[in-house]
Amino acid sequence: MSTAASAVDAFDGLAARLRRRPDIEAHDLVAADASDRLILAEAGELRGTVAVIGDRYGALTLSLLASDPDLRVRVHQDALTGERALALNAAELGLPLDRVSWHDLDAALLEDADTALLQLPRSLDALDEIAGLVSGAGGRLVAGGRIKHMSLGMNDVLSRHFARVDVSRAASKSRVLQGSEPRAGTAGVWPRCERHVDLGLIVCAHGAAFAGTSIDIGTRFLLSFLPDLPAAAVGIDLACGTGVLATMLAKAQPGIRVIASDQSAAAVSSARATAEANGVADRVAVVRDDGLGAQPDASADLILLNPPFHSGAAVTEEIAPRMFADAARVLRPGGELWVVFNSHLGYRPILERAVGKTHQAGRNAKFTVTVSTRR
Questions:
Q1: In sequence order, which residues have a C-beta less than 8 Å from that of residue 198 and are 6 or more positions away?
Q2: Alpha helices in 224-363 (DSSP H)
Q3: What is the pLDDT of residue 3?
Q4: Which of 131, 191, 233, 336 could form a disulfide bond with 161, CB atoms 3.0-4.6 angstroms apart?
Q5: Where is the Methyltransferase small domain (predicted)?
Q6: Do 178 and 207 have their domain in common?
Q7: pLDDT tens digits, residue range 31-72?
Q8: Is residue 38 part of a domain?
Q9: Residue 187 lies in a domain
Q10: Which of 120, 134, 11 is nearest to 56 (CA)?
């Protein structure tokens, strides 16, 4: 039996047992789907070491481990919750992880691996960074996803890095793109940086970082309230993305120590680069964390939050309340949580319950900014 067939058989035996925890779990949010199965089916013969990128909750990695006792897997997962879910799922399934190693998105990830399996990212920039890395290492890329999340632009990106791009037949609303025959010298320079003259800010971003080198309009609205923020000894930019809020807060308050926290590896690398580009890296500590799990109780005076509403490709309103609860724990009594959100979400009652007295600081056509004082 081929590696691909064995891996598919393994997937069929374990997929229903996979869970998403510690990420959001709900009846309509799955830990594995047909795109994982199709990636494995189209992978062909795999020997030695395989690189797996973007494995959401372990479906690809664990199927490979279960299919061949000799395979070694090098893994890069952008989301910290994905790493933790993979480990929890492995323990539940009784699969040891001695043949798995986790890596940054860099050359070491592709060492000794001539094939990389990829769950296609939503961002073309993210795909560009990954494809450039795989091509630069002389590897073959097998990338799959749900058709509703794919675009012809993905073919164009792969064609920049590979002389041959093959497209699989659709199966169960999924499809696989394969890049082979790597082109030389196509990898770009990451992170990319852009100067925003109106804010006096340089934003740096890796491909998978939300909003890239631009500044999303919700963050821009919250930035307009910088002069109204209380002076603080310790401030936190929760779900920091590229570190725009953290960097601007450090620039606005020279005496503050800022913690920028995000579970995304791309966001953390981007935020570090943004802080360094703006000369505040000595006062901005960037950490990769699931919410504020690593921060002590009652340790911050001020928290800024532009909460995400995506868990992978799924839209959910369950992420923000978790972050509000984290902020309530970490804020000192009397500390303030400033949140910007789409006005229709109506987070104010949730903030009142989770944190304390909440009032509206401002509102425009799309967004609301609230201030919650820790009771």
A1: none
A2: 244-252, 265-277, 319-330, 348-354
A3: 72
A4: 131
A5: 201-370
A6: no
A7: 999 999 999 999 999 999 999 999 999 999 999 999 999 999
A8: yes
A9: no
A10: 120
